[in-house]
Amino acid sequence: MATVNKAILLGYVGKDPDVRYVDQGVCVAQLRLATTEPGYTLQNGTEVPERTEWHNVIFWRKLGETVEKYVHKGDLIYVEGKIQTRSYDDRQGITRYITEIWADRLEMFPPKAKAETSAN
Questions:
Q1: Per-residue model confidence (pLDDT) at position 88
Q2: 68: which residues sit within 8 A by CB, 6+ positions away?
Q3: Could you tell me which residues come within 8 angstroms of residue 9 by beta carbon, excluding any fewer than 6 positions away?
Q4: Model pLDDT for residues 78-103, shown as the tens digit of each residue
Q5: Helix, strand, or coil (residue 61)
Q6: Cα(first)–Cα(last) distance of the chain, in Å?
Q7: 42-58, pLDDT tens digit by residue?
Q8: Helix H segments across the chain?
Q9: What is the percentage of the chain residues whose pLDDT exceeds 90?
């Protein structure tokens, strides 16, 4: 039976992307993407607060170059990719784990100010 490893995210960029070029000029862009689940109230009156999750997203090659040119802090973007977890040892020798989304699709939405101006 086949398996699927796919992440679909729609969220806001937390800070300008970090971009570097590796092996013969291959572009790699990384950013933090925030997705938020709205809060709600249970039938018994218990308030469940909104919850924001931060995702590490990696873009390679042409997608990385697109991110470098057009994506900025506060932008709303749609990302599809696969989930990858890796480990590393920190300075104290403790093994740490990081989960990343390796993007293979990106859609950008106009900034709020531009969207509001064009709607008028």
A1: 93
A2: 17, 19, 27, 29
A3: 33, 35, 55, 57, 78, 79, 80, 101
A4: 999 999 999 999 999 999 999 999 99
A5: helix
A6: 52
A7: 999 999 999 999 999 99
A8: 61-70, 112-119
A9: 87
Cα 86 → chain centroid: 17
| Residue 13: burial class (beta carbons within 10 Å; 0-12, 13-18, 19+) | buried
Which fold does the domain 7-37+46-119 belong to in CATH?
Answer: OB fold (Dihydrolipoamide Acetyltransferase, E2P) (2.40.50)
Of 68, 67, 72, nearest to 103 (Cα)?
67
Q: Work out the pLDDT band at 114, boundaries 50, 70, 90.
A: low
> Is residue 117 helix, strand or coil?
helix
Cβ of 84: how many Cβ atoms within 10 Å?
Answer: 14
Paired sense of beta strands 95-108 and 51-60, if any: parallel
Taking the C-alpha atoms of residue 29 and residue 76, their distance in angstroms, rounded to an integer, is 16
